[in-house]
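Researcher: Next sequence.
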Amino acid sequence: MSKRRTAEEETKFFAARGFGKRIGFGDRAALVAFSHIVAPSQGLTENLDRVRAALDQAKGEGLTSLIDATHAGMLLGESDAGRSLLIVFSDGVDTSSWLTADAVLETARRGDVVVYGVEVGERRASFPRDLSETTGGRLFAIESTKDLSATFSRILEEFRMRYLVSYSPQGVAAGGWHRLEVRVKNRGVTVQARPGYFAGQG
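Model: Next structure:
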């Protein structure tokens, strides 16, 4: 008779399964596990087994420093070359962060990391959605942890299909936040992009 997995074990199983499906040669991954304490469990590495091992050691206990952990994840992403993806998965609202949501959203505007949020059940707070929209990502609300594998695979596939569009602005202020809207001529096409960019002082 097989042993029935606990909710925590089931979450780890489906997360690891989805995480490894589309990670390819040359990709680098990291893990930041958090409760009221935030610490990188595994730095950026091409060795996926190390990330899986760190995930297996994570414990579902303590308070939730979601905002602080998101900030730490973005800093890890910014340390890597090229466009980085951050997947933020949590089953609860923030209860113990030091940083404010506005401060982390400002960091997101100034950075280049694309953030996707994954929440189990009904949406509980505005921060994950605001962060996803600010960085050009999306928020997924799933029914149970059994949907994690398919959701993570979908996020990775979608991220790989993104286009990088650049332009040189003219006639705008040198510094600050500038709203930006990307449109396509074809009808029935949904554009998912960052809503603006933060320019430094010229």
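Model: The longest helix spans residues 7-21. Residues 25 and 161 are 17 Å apart (CA to CA).
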